[in-house]
Amino acid sequence: MNIHEYQASELLAAAGVTVPRGVVAHTAEEAESIARNFSWSSFMVKAQVHAGGRGKGHFQDGFKGGVHLVKTPQQVRDIAAKMIGNTLITHQTGPEGKPVHAVLICEPTEIARELYLAIVLDRSSGCPVIVASRQGGMEIETVAEKNPEAILREKVHPSLGLQPYQARKLSIFLGFPSTALRAPCRLLHAAYRLFIDKDCSQVEINPLAVTKGGDVCALDAKLNFDDNAIFRHKEIEALSDPSQEDPRDLAAAEHHLNYIGLDGNIGCMVNGAGLAMATLDLLQAVGGRPANFLDVGGGASKQMVTVAFRLLQGDPSVKAILVNIFGGILKCDLLAQGMVAACHNAPPRVPIIVRMQGTNVDAGRKILKESGLALIPAEGLMEAAEKAVAAASGKKGK
Ligand code: GDP
Ligand code: MN
Question: Are strands 320-327 and 266-270 parallel, antiparallel or unpaired?
Fold first, then answer.
């Protein structure tokens, strides 16, 4: 789960990390009155979306930049008016962008150096890892590609926690003199504690600013939380903002479907995560692009199959649907009933390829046949994938 920068900033501050003073606004008037309340000499106005790269992004109407430095409350109002209600497009949002409903007004920090700091879960070593770089303000992926030695990755033993020597090592790598390690070490411990206490999957501070006075301040933060642990953090769950989510993912979550939207045009309904991933790979291998991952699971009810199938049908980017089911606990006849029910009120608008094997397959095929639905049957997996790719590109299958 993602949250906004202003929310991340509040959580970091509560954990003991220095962040710029700031207040969120939902209207341009509110933004101006916040600015008037503070006697700062200038103001940062920052569009709030669940994505990074805002500074270099642009709005749907051509207005440039999701992060602005301005001088007067009137200018705060003008910039906020341009941002709120607009859609911000960055390299992290995809071409459709994300809607802006709020802006963060904060006090500019005088930056001496910009650093990068992140804490992520490293699945290959099975522990949290702290990633640090002196090249802050840049994408870490770019640094990793062009200048990998500029990045230090420090693994933290999950039961020992961050050790003082590790915090010092990271701080020295980040260029702090050995006489000025207190501030960066405090920040590292505070950020690490937040990562553990809130079950984060990522804490990313970019840039972490070193101020002219030698202090450290988190100018921009991105927090991600482990969805499987959210039940332990109701206060975090309450920070979710559905306007920032893919509407397909929201519909799927509502029905507890194991669904992930992708950017292709072949809708996939599969049972079992392994078979679902193999299906995506196979589609890709024969030149297709899946529109989603969807594992309807072993214990799916007829109603869940119906909901899942409607979700695929309702996705405008879907040009063909591939149903790939190996009937085990989920029986083929139940699946067929679910599909027929989904098509009852909304007749299929795209070709549907069905590959079905396993428990009650004959009963399932009979239900589909008697339904009168125009389905394209397939026996083998490769055959199914090829037929789906052909159908999605508007060609007739072999
Ligand atoms: P992002 O583009 O979404 O990562 O948004 P950031 O909040 O990181 O802002 C982009 C860039 O704006 C940063 O890398 C900084 O260089 C600059 N910036 C952000 N806040 C401040 C600030 O308070 N003072 C100054 N001087 N620059 C800032
Ligand atoms: Mn940033």
Answer: parallel
Beta strands in 164-311 (DSSP E): 200-211, 216-218, 221-225, 258-261, 266-270, 292-295
Name the pTM for this structure.
Answer: 0.85
Among this protein's residues, is 204 annotated catalytic? yes
Residue 89 CA, ligand 2 centroid: distance in Å:
15
| Catalytically annotated residue among 116, 192, 259, 386 | 116
Contact predicate 103/65, CB 8 Å: no
Q: What is the pLDDT of residues 302-354, one digit of tens each?
A: 888 888 888 999 999 999 999 999 988 889 999 899 889 888 877 889 999 99
Q: Which atom of ligand 1 is nearest to the CA of 67?
A: 9
Counting ligands in written order, the one closest to the CA of 137 is: 1
In the annotation, is 107 catalytic?
no
User: 90: CA distance to ligand 1 center in Å?
Assistant: 14
Taking only the tens place, the pLDDT of each residue in 67-95 is 999 999 999 999 999 999 999 999 999 88
In the chain the domains, ranked by start, together with CATH numbers, are 21-106 (3.30.1490.20), 111-237 (3.30.470.20), 247-392 (3.40.50.261)
